[in-house]
Design brief:
The chain has 16 helices and nine strands. The chain is an alpha+beta fold and about 425 residues long. A hairpin with a 4-residue loop joins strand 2 and strand 3. The strands form three sheets. Strands 7-8-4-9 form a four-stranded mixed beta sheet, with helices on one face.
Length: about 425
Protein backbone atom coordinates (compact mmCIF):
# COMPACT_ATOMS: atom_id res chain seq x y z
CA UNK A 1 0.00 0.00 0.00
CA UNK A 2 1.38 3.40 -1.04
CA UNK A 3 0.80 5.99 1.68
CA UNK A 4 1.13 9.71 1.36
CA UNK A 5 -0.06 12.63 3.50
CA UNK A 6 -2.08 15.46 1.97
CA UNK A 7 -3.54 18.57 3.51
CA UNK A 8 -7.15 19.61 2.90
CA UNK A 9 -8.08 23.14 3.96
CA UNK A 10 -11.52 23.82 5.37
CA UNK A 11 -11.40 27.38 4.06
CA UNK A 12 -10.55 28.98 0.74
CA UNK A 13 -6.79 28.73 0.06
CA UNK A 14 -6.78 32.30 -1.27
CA UNK A 15 -7.28 33.68 2.20
CA UNK A 16 -4.25 35.35 3.77
CA UNK A 17 -5.04 34.37 7.36
CA UNK A 18 -1.92 33.32 9.21
CA UNK A 19 -3.44 29.98 10.13
CA UNK A 20 -6.61 28.02 9.55
CA UNK A 21 -8.22 24.79 10.66
CA UNK A 22 -7.34 21.98 8.28
CA UNK A 23 -7.83 18.28 7.93
CA UNK A 24 -4.73 16.21 7.32
CA UNK A 25 -5.74 13.20 5.24
CA UNK A 26 -3.80 9.95 5.04
CA UNK A 27 -4.25 9.00 1.42
CA UNK A 28 -3.78 5.61 -0.23
CA UNK A 29 -2.53 6.49 -3.72
CA UNK A 30 -3.05 3.02 -5.16
CA UNK A 31 -6.76 3.08 -4.27
CA UNK A 32 -7.35 6.82 -4.41
CA UNK A 33 -9.10 6.62 -1.04
CA UNK A 34 -8.86 8.50 2.24
CA UNK A 35 -8.02 6.05 5.03
CA UNK A 36 -7.73 8.40 8.02
CA UNK A 37 -7.94 12.02 9.14
CA UNK A 38 -6.96 14.33 11.96
CA UNK A 39 -7.46 18.03 12.66
CA UNK A 40 -4.68 20.57 13.10
CA UNK A 41 -3.82 24.19 12.35
CA UNK A 42 -1.22 25.30 9.81
CA UNK A 43 -0.26 28.35 7.79
CA UNK A 44 -2.07 28.35 4.46
CA UNK A 45 1.15 29.36 2.72
CA UNK A 46 3.16 26.62 4.37
CA UNK A 47 6.66 27.72 5.37
CA UNK A 48 8.49 24.42 5.20
CA UNK A 49 11.68 25.62 6.87
CA UNK A 50 11.39 22.86 9.44
CA UNK A 51 11.61 20.22 6.72
CA UNK A 52 14.59 18.82 4.92
CA UNK A 53 15.10 19.25 1.19
CA UNK A 54 13.14 16.57 -0.66
CA UNK A 55 14.64 15.40 -3.96
CA UNK A 56 13.12 13.24 -6.71
CA UNK A 57 15.20 11.99 -9.61
CA UNK A 58 14.27 9.92 -12.65
CA UNK A 59 16.09 6.59 -12.70
CA UNK A 60 18.94 6.67 -15.20
CA UNK A 61 19.66 10.35 -14.53
CA UNK A 62 23.13 9.77 -13.10
CA UNK A 63 24.14 7.22 -15.73
CA UNK A 64 23.40 9.51 -18.68
CA UNK A 65 26.41 10.23 -20.88
CA UNK A 66 26.56 12.61 -23.83
CA UNK A 67 27.33 10.81 -27.11
CA UNK A 68 29.17 13.94 -28.36
CA UNK A 69 30.37 13.51 -31.95
CA UNK A 70 28.00 10.59 -32.52
CA UNK A 71 24.93 12.72 -31.82
CA UNK A 72 22.64 12.98 -34.87
CA UNK A 73 21.37 16.43 -33.84
CA UNK A 74 23.80 18.42 -31.72
CA UNK A 75 22.53 20.57 -28.88
CA UNK A 76 25.32 23.06 -29.74
CA UNK A 77 23.44 24.60 -32.69
CA UNK A 78 20.11 26.23 -33.29
CA UNK A 79 19.93 28.45 -30.19
CA UNK A 80 22.16 30.72 -28.14
CA UNK A 81 23.97 29.11 -25.21
CA UNK A 82 23.83 31.31 -22.11
CA UNK A 83 26.94 31.49 -19.92
CA UNK A 84 26.68 31.71 -16.14
CA UNK A 85 28.69 34.39 -14.29
CA UNK A 86 31.06 31.92 -12.64
CA UNK A 87 32.06 30.44 -15.99
CA UNK A 88 32.47 33.90 -17.52
CA UNK A 89 34.83 34.87 -14.74
CA UNK A 90 36.87 31.74 -15.37
CA UNK A 91 37.03 32.42 -19.12
CA UNK A 92 38.21 35.98 -18.45
CA UNK A 93 41.03 34.66 -16.26
CA UNK A 94 42.08 31.76 -18.53
CA UNK A 95 45.87 32.01 -18.92
CA UNK A 96 46.60 29.11 -21.27
CA UNK A 97 47.51 29.55 -24.94
CA UNK A 98 43.86 28.86 -25.75
CA UNK A 99 42.67 31.84 -23.67
CA UNK A 100 42.59 34.41 -26.47
CA UNK A 101 40.68 32.09 -28.79
CA UNK A 102 38.26 31.36 -25.97
CA UNK A 103 37.53 34.99 -25.21
CA UNK A 104 37.16 35.94 -28.89
CA UNK A 105 34.31 33.44 -29.26
CA UNK A 106 32.21 34.95 -26.46
CA UNK A 107 29.64 37.73 -26.78
CA UNK A 108 30.45 39.40 -23.48
CA UNK A 109 27.55 41.85 -23.60
CA UNK A 110 24.90 39.17 -24.14
CA UNK A 111 26.76 36.54 -22.07
CA UNK A 112 26.45 33.88 -24.77
CA UNK A 113 28.80 31.97 -27.05
CA UNK A 114 29.06 33.42 -30.54
CA UNK A 115 27.59 31.49 -33.49
CA UNK A 116 28.48 31.06 -37.14
CA UNK A 117 26.16 31.77 -40.08
CA UNK A 118 24.46 28.39 -39.59
CA UNK A 119 23.67 29.14 -35.92
CA UNK A 120 26.32 26.67 -34.74
CA UNK A 121 28.21 27.44 -31.54
CA UNK A 122 31.63 28.95 -32.26
CA UNK A 123 33.23 26.05 -30.34
CA UNK A 124 31.43 23.30 -32.27
CA UNK A 125 33.88 21.56 -34.60
CA UNK A 126 33.00 19.80 -37.85
CA UNK A 127 33.48 16.41 -36.19
CA UNK A 128 30.75 17.31 -33.67
CA UNK A 129 33.11 17.77 -30.74
CA UNK A 130 33.52 20.88 -28.56
CA UNK A 131 36.78 22.72 -29.23
CA UNK A 132 36.82 24.18 -25.72
CA UNK A 133 36.34 20.75 -24.16
CA UNK A 134 39.13 19.31 -26.31
CA UNK A 135 41.58 22.04 -25.24
CA UNK A 136 40.56 22.72 -21.63
CA UNK A 137 38.60 19.67 -20.46
CA UNK A 138 35.15 19.15 -18.97
CA UNK A 139 35.72 21.52 -16.05
CA UNK A 140 35.87 24.45 -18.47
CA UNK A 141 32.25 24.06 -19.60
CA UNK A 142 29.59 26.50 -18.45
CA UNK A 143 26.55 25.43 -16.43
CA UNK A 144 24.30 25.19 -19.50
CA UNK A 145 26.65 22.79 -21.26
CA UNK A 146 27.22 20.58 -18.23
CA UNK A 147 23.51 20.49 -17.28
CA UNK A 148 21.67 19.75 -20.53
CA UNK A 149 19.72 17.51 -21.06
CA UNK A 150 19.20 17.41 -17.30
CA UNK A 151 16.07 19.32 -16.29
CA UNK A 152 15.26 20.64 -12.81
CA UNK A 153 11.89 21.76 -11.47
CA UNK A 154 12.06 23.81 -8.27
CA UNK A 155 9.47 24.02 -5.52
CA UNK A 156 9.80 25.14 -1.91
CA UNK A 157 12.31 22.73 -0.35
CA UNK A 158 11.71 20.28 -3.22
CA UNK A 159 13.83 19.60 -6.30
CA UNK A 160 12.81 17.26 -9.12
CA UNK A 161 15.29 16.07 -11.72
CA UNK A 162 14.53 14.56 -15.12
CA UNK A 163 16.16 14.12 -18.53
CA UNK A 164 14.82 16.11 -21.48
CA UNK A 165 13.68 14.08 -24.49
CA UNK A 166 14.81 16.95 -26.72
CA UNK A 167 18.17 15.15 -26.48
CA UNK A 168 18.45 12.40 -29.15
CA UNK A 169 20.15 9.97 -26.77
CA UNK A 170 17.49 10.46 -24.10
CA UNK A 171 14.63 10.16 -26.60
CA UNK A 172 15.96 6.91 -28.04
CA UNK A 173 16.62 5.49 -24.59
CA UNK A 174 13.08 6.36 -23.46
CA UNK A 175 11.41 4.82 -26.51
CA UNK A 176 13.61 1.74 -26.68
CA UNK A 177 12.78 0.50 -23.19
CA UNK A 178 9.56 -1.11 -22.04
CA UNK A 179 10.45 -0.62 -18.38
CA UNK A 180 7.98 1.89 -16.87
CA UNK A 181 9.50 5.24 -15.93
CA UNK A 182 10.28 5.47 -12.23
CA UNK A 183 11.97 7.81 -9.76
CA UNK A 184 14.01 7.65 -6.60
CA UNK A 185 13.28 9.98 -3.69
CA UNK A 186 15.45 11.05 -0.77
CA UNK A 187 15.99 13.89 1.68
CA UNK A 188 19.05 15.85 2.70
CA UNK A 189 19.80 18.61 5.18
CA UNK A 190 19.87 21.51 2.73
CA UNK A 191 17.23 24.10 3.58
CA UNK A 192 16.42 27.20 1.56
CA UNK A 193 14.58 30.41 2.33
CA UNK A 194 10.78 29.98 2.18
CA UNK A 195 9.15 30.98 -1.11
CA UNK A 196 6.91 34.00 -0.93
CA UNK A 197 3.27 32.85 -0.72
CA UNK A 198 4.04 29.33 -1.96
CA UNK A 199 0.77 27.37 -2.20
CA UNK A 200 1.92 24.45 -0.10
CA UNK A 201 -1.54 22.90 0.20
CA UNK A 202 -2.11 22.95 -3.55
CA UNK A 203 1.36 21.53 -4.15
CA UNK A 204 0.71 18.59 -1.82
CA UNK A 205 -2.56 17.86 -3.60
CA UNK A 206 -0.83 18.02 -6.98
CA UNK A 207 1.83 15.55 -5.84
CA UNK A 208 -0.86 13.09 -4.73
CA UNK A 209 -2.77 13.58 -7.97
CA UNK A 210 0.38 13.15 -10.07
CA UNK A 211 1.19 9.83 -8.44
CA UNK A 212 -2.35 8.65 -9.11
CA UNK A 213 -2.16 9.87 -12.73
CA UNK A 214 1.08 8.00 -13.33
CA UNK A 215 -0.31 4.85 -11.72
CA UNK A 216 -3.30 5.01 -14.08
CA UNK A 217 -1.13 5.61 -17.15
CA UNK A 218 1.22 2.74 -16.29
CA UNK A 219 -1.53 0.15 -15.75
CA UNK A 220 -0.95 -1.80 -18.97
CA UNK A 221 -3.82 -4.18 -18.29
CA UNK A 222 -6.12 -1.40 -19.51
CA UNK A 223 -6.21 -0.15 -23.15
CA UNK A 224 -4.14 2.99 -23.56
CA UNK A 225 -7.01 5.16 -24.81
CA UNK A 226 -9.11 4.30 -21.75
CA UNK A 227 -6.19 5.04 -19.44
CA UNK A 228 -5.92 8.49 -21.01
CA UNK A 229 -9.66 9.15 -20.64
CA UNK A 230 -9.72 7.91 -17.04
CA UNK A 231 -6.79 10.11 -16.10
CA UNK A 232 -8.17 13.20 -17.83
CA UNK A 233 -11.65 12.79 -16.33
CA UNK A 234 -10.06 12.59 -12.90
CA UNK A 235 -7.92 15.69 -13.36
CA UNK A 236 -10.80 17.62 -14.93
CA UNK A 237 -12.91 16.94 -11.84
CA UNK A 238 -10.07 18.23 -9.68
CA UNK A 239 -9.79 21.38 -11.84
CA UNK A 240 -13.53 22.03 -11.58
CA UNK A 241 -13.43 21.64 -7.80
CA UNK A 242 -10.49 24.04 -7.52
CA UNK A 243 -12.16 26.57 -9.83
CA UNK A 244 -15.23 26.51 -7.59
CA UNK A 245 -13.19 26.86 -4.40
CA UNK A 246 -13.91 23.33 -3.17
CA UNK A 247 -10.35 22.71 -2.07
CA UNK A 248 -11.32 20.33 0.72
CA UNK A 249 -12.98 17.87 -1.69
CA UNK A 250 -10.98 18.21 -4.91
CA UNK A 251 -9.18 14.86 -4.56
CA UNK A 252 -12.36 13.01 -3.60
CA UNK A 253 -14.21 14.63 -6.52
CA UNK A 254 -11.41 13.48 -8.77
CA UNK A 255 -11.69 9.92 -7.47
CA UNK A 256 -15.45 9.91 -8.09
CA UNK A 257 -14.88 10.89 -11.74
CA UNK A 258 -12.11 8.39 -12.34
CA UNK A 259 -13.87 5.47 -14.02
CA UNK A 260 -14.07 5.65 -17.83
CA UNK A 261 -15.46 3.02 -20.15
CA UNK A 262 -14.04 4.32 -23.41
CA UNK A 263 -11.19 6.38 -24.79
CA UNK A 264 -11.22 10.08 -25.67
CA UNK A 265 -13.24 10.22 -28.89
CA UNK A 266 -11.14 13.09 -30.27
CA UNK A 267 -8.10 10.84 -30.60
CA UNK A 268 -9.96 8.48 -32.96
CA UNK A 269 -11.56 11.23 -35.05
CA UNK A 270 -9.83 12.49 -38.18
CA UNK A 271 -11.50 15.88 -37.85
CA UNK A 272 -10.67 16.33 -34.17
CA UNK A 273 -7.08 15.12 -34.53
CA UNK A 274 -6.65 17.53 -37.45
CA UNK A 275 -7.75 20.38 -35.18
CA UNK A 276 -5.28 19.32 -32.50
CA UNK A 277 -2.53 18.93 -35.09
CA UNK A 278 -3.11 22.46 -36.41
CA UNK A 279 -2.36 23.81 -32.92
CA UNK A 280 1.29 23.19 -33.80
CA UNK A 281 1.17 25.97 -36.40
CA UNK A 282 0.34 28.45 -33.62
CA UNK A 283 3.72 27.80 -32.01
CA UNK A 284 6.78 29.76 -33.04
CA UNK A 285 8.93 27.43 -35.20
CA UNK A 286 12.44 27.12 -33.80
CA UNK A 287 14.01 25.25 -36.73
CA UNK A 288 13.65 26.31 -40.33
CA UNK A 289 12.39 22.92 -41.56
CA UNK A 290 9.81 22.31 -38.84
CA UNK A 291 6.84 23.93 -40.60
CA UNK A 292 7.66 22.08 -43.81
CA UNK A 293 7.66 18.80 -41.86
CA UNK A 294 4.26 19.63 -40.40
CA UNK A 295 2.79 20.51 -43.80
CA UNK A 296 4.04 17.25 -45.32
CA UNK A 297 2.61 15.23 -42.43
CA UNK A 298 -0.71 17.08 -42.57
CA UNK A 299 -1.03 16.26 -46.28
CA UNK A 300 -0.36 12.56 -45.69
CA UNK A 301 -2.68 12.21 -42.69
CA UNK A 302 -5.75 14.35 -43.17
CA UNK A 303 -6.48 14.63 -46.89
CA UNK A 304 -8.56 11.46 -46.71
CA UNK A 305 -11.80 10.20 -45.14
CA UNK A 306 -12.53 8.85 -41.66
CA UNK A 307 -12.68 5.22 -42.77
CA UNK A 308 -9.26 5.34 -44.45
CA UNK A 309 -7.77 7.24 -41.52
CA UNK A 310 -9.08 4.66 -39.03
CA UNK A 311 -7.76 1.80 -41.15
CA UNK A 312 -4.30 3.41 -41.33
CA UNK A 313 -4.27 3.91 -37.55
CA UNK A 314 -5.12 0.26 -36.98
CA UNK A 315 -2.57 -0.98 -39.49
CA UNK A 316 0.13 1.19 -37.93
CA UNK A 317 -0.74 -0.01 -34.42
CA UNK A 318 -0.54 -3.63 -35.59
CA UNK A 319 2.88 -3.04 -37.14
CA UNK A 320 4.23 -1.53 -33.88
CA UNK A 321 3.58 -3.94 -30.99
CA UNK A 322 5.06 -1.55 -28.40
CA UNK A 323 3.42 1.59 -29.78
CA UNK A 324 1.27 2.25 -26.71
CA UNK A 325 4.20 1.58 -24.38
CA UNK A 326 6.12 4.31 -26.20
CA UNK A 327 3.15 6.66 -25.97
CA UNK A 328 2.76 5.86 -22.28
CA UNK A 329 6.42 6.75 -21.67
CA UNK A 330 5.90 10.12 -23.37
CA UNK A 331 2.77 10.93 -21.36
CA UNK A 332 4.45 10.00 -18.07
CA UNK A 333 7.56 11.99 -19.01
CA UNK A 334 5.50 15.17 -19.49
CA UNK A 335 3.37 14.55 -16.39
CA UNK A 336 6.40 14.15 -14.14
CA UNK A 337 8.30 17.09 -15.62
CA UNK A 338 5.50 19.67 -15.72
CA UNK A 339 2.28 18.74 -13.89
CA UNK A 340 3.21 20.03 -10.43
CA UNK A 341 4.16 23.34 -12.03
CA UNK A 342 0.43 24.02 -11.89
CA UNK A 343 1.09 25.18 -8.33
CA UNK A 344 2.22 28.47 -9.90
CA UNK A 345 -0.64 29.06 -12.39
CA UNK A 346 -3.35 26.49 -11.51
CA UNK A 347 -3.55 25.14 -15.09
CA UNK A 348 -4.11 21.68 -13.63
CA UNK A 349 -6.22 20.11 -16.37
CA UNK A 350 -4.39 21.86 -19.23
CA UNK A 351 -1.04 20.35 -18.21
CA UNK A 352 -2.54 16.86 -17.95
CA UNK A 353 -4.24 17.10 -21.32
CA UNK A 354 -1.12 18.56 -22.89
CA UNK A 355 0.86 15.48 -21.82
CA UNK A 356 -1.64 13.20 -23.56
CA UNK A 357 -2.01 15.39 -26.63
CA UNK A 358 1.77 15.57 -27.02
CA UNK A 359 1.91 11.77 -27.16
CA UNK A 360 -0.88 11.58 -29.73
CA UNK A 361 0.63 14.31 -31.90
CA UNK A 362 3.99 12.53 -31.84
CA UNK A 363 2.06 9.37 -32.79
CA UNK A 364 0.58 11.27 -35.75
CA UNK A 365 4.06 12.32 -36.90
CA UNK A 366 5.23 8.70 -36.56
CA UNK A 367 2.27 7.58 -38.66
CA UNK A 368 3.11 10.15 -41.34
CA UNK A 369 6.75 9.02 -41.40
CA UNK A 370 5.60 5.40 -41.66
CA UNK A 371 3.44 6.27 -44.67
CA UNK A 372 6.22 8.33 -46.24
CA UNK A 373 8.61 5.38 -46.01
CA UNK A 374 6.29 2.77 -47.55
CA UNK A 375 4.94 1.69 -44.16
CA UNK A 376 8.27 1.19 -42.41
CA UNK A 377 9.74 3.07 -39.46
CA UNK A 378 12.73 2.46 -37.17
CA UNK A 379 13.31 3.28 -33.54
CA UNK A 380 15.78 5.96 -34.64
CA UNK A 381 13.08 7.52 -36.86
CA UNK A 382 10.69 7.57 -33.91
CA UNK A 383 13.31 9.03 -31.58
CA UNK A 384 14.15 11.75 -34.11
CA UNK A 385 10.51 12.80 -34.39
CA UNK A 386 10.14 12.80 -30.60
CA UNK A 387 13.22 14.93 -29.92
CA UNK A 388 12.43 17.38 -32.73
CA UNK A 389 8.89 17.79 -31.40
CA UNK A 390 10.23 18.27 -27.89
CA UNK A 391 12.72 20.91 -29.03
CA UNK A 392 10.02 22.92 -30.77
CA UNK A 393 7.86 22.84 -27.64
CA UNK A 394 10.14 22.64 -24.62
CA UNK A 395 12.95 24.92 -25.79
CA UNK A 396 10.62 27.92 -25.87
CA UNK A 397 8.83 29.29 -22.81
CA UNK A 398 6.45 31.08 -25.17
CA UNK A 399 5.56 27.83 -26.95
CA UNK A 400 5.03 25.99 -23.67
CA UNK A 401 2.72 28.75 -22.46
CA UNK A 402 0.85 28.85 -25.79
CA UNK A 403 0.24 25.10 -25.78
CA UNK A 404 -0.92 25.26 -22.16
CA UNK A 405 -3.42 28.00 -23.03
CA UNK A 406 -4.71 26.10 -26.07
CA UNK A 407 -5.25 22.99 -23.97
CA UNK A 408 -7.11 25.03 -21.37
CA UNK A 409 -9.50 26.14 -24.12
CA UNK A 410 -9.94 22.72 -25.78
CA UNK A 411 -11.30 20.42 -23.07
CA UNK A 412 -11.55 16.89 -24.52
CA UNK A 413 -13.48 15.07 -21.76
Amino acid sequence: MSITTTVNATTDIATTDIATSVVVTIYDISLGLSIGKKNCRINLYQKRTEKKMLRRKVRGYDSFRCIAGDCPQTCCAGWLIEIDDEALEGYQKETSAYGETLRARIDWEEKVFRQDADARCAFLRQDGLCDMYCHLGEDSLCLTCTSYPRHTEEFENVREYSLAISCPAVAEQLLATTQPLSWETWEDDEIEEPYEEFHGILYEKLVVMRESMIAIMQDRRIPFAIRCHTMLRKVNAMQEALDEGRWESCLLDAKAAEDAKEGVRAFASLEDMHVLFRNLYALEPLSYMWRERLLAAEHLLYETDQETYTHLQQEFETSQPDLFVKMEQIVVYFIFAYFCGAVYDEYVYALAQEAVVNAYLIRELWLAKWLEQDKTITIKDMAEIAYRYSRELEHSEENLESMEEMMDGQILV
